[in-house]
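Figure S7 source data.
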Amino acid sequence: MTGHGSRTITDVDVVVCSPGRSYVTLRLGTADGLVGWGDATLNGRELAVVAYLRDHVAPLLLGKDSSRIGDLWQYLYRGPYWRRGPVTMAAISSVDQALWDIQGKAAGMPVFQLLGGRARERLMTYPHASGHTVEDAIASIAAKLEEGYAAVRVQASVPGLPSTYGIHVGDSRDHAYEPAHTDLPDEEAWNTPLYLDFVPKLMKAVRDELGYGFNLLHDGHHRLTPTEAAWLGKELEPQRLFWLEDVTPAEDQSAFSLIKAHTTTPLAVGEVFNSIWDCQQLVTNRWIDYIRCATTHTGGITHMKRILDLADLYGVRSGCHGPSDVSPVGMAANIHLGFAVPNFGVQEFMGYPDAAAEVFTTSYRLVSGHLEIDDTVPGLGVEVDVEAAERFPYDRKYLPVNRRLDGSMHDW
Ligand code: KDG
Ligand code: MG
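Tokens for the predicted magnesium ion complex:
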């Protein structure tokens, strides 16, 4: 489908920068001078997506009609024969986001208008609260509630372990758990009995101290077996969590049938998924309550819309992944969807390093723990300052790895 008109894609560029975190940003330009931006950031494996885009996708896009978003999606998904996978899908996601951005700019409308229009005035978000002690974690939640958040995720250091996932060191801001102190991954330690002993005590202390007037979330970060996860879900029922996230790795979707059969604690999963097929059994069997995919890793707006439409049929709501390693462009794509779909649940919003604001400016803003968006800015509403990006050259970092106390590898 070669394009000859004003909407023809005439240039494709990939911007790589590390303003506090690493971001890979796709830039598509059209014959009539429109520019679309897409997020292709895959934390810890960024340059694999850069090569995929530069070496394999860019030649395919030049000369194509940028308005054919659905067809270009199929072309990039079915065309290479090799489907799915985080690298491929992050690349496709960025193209899709950039095409929606251009479509919105061509129409003079924000993307959420093209998706059906505004369904709500603002989006509830959740930030990360944490502490080395239960008291610190409670104080961290209280501070977030003070700022106006209606939902908060809490993690705290597990007594007896030298380090715990999700504890922000040396900086109270959400994005601060910078992994790498060396060029290689940090090694963290894990022990399931210590974790299972601690988390119910933490959650009880939180509710005893702060009450039930806000949504409380916790992330298990893929550490438990299905049986352990079922036990934890049951144990946490009196604390009425908004969700318990990623209790077990979800490659094995049917594991969730066991967990769901044993607990009424709502379950969320999906931040590492990259297609609707990863969600299919979980959603259609009603084994989960929230689907956590992000537009950056799950095929962009086009594919996420299909996932959320499927989810809506089964009462599953959105909870798009929104760490600071999803760039402000990918965050904007999540947000436009969130404003339009009927089954929005919550948007994770972890915040960004200050330097990121030198590169990205957005039409969404965080007001008292909720996201608002400017109706008047067309497209995704994110501008990228390429010159500023050059001031922050790529800085390779790895996520930590996780070992049990006997030294064997566990899931991080
Ligand atoms: O890149 C991985 C992080 O984004 C992930 O570990 C954060 O689990 C996470 C979350 O829920 O935001
Ligand atoms: Mg998570």
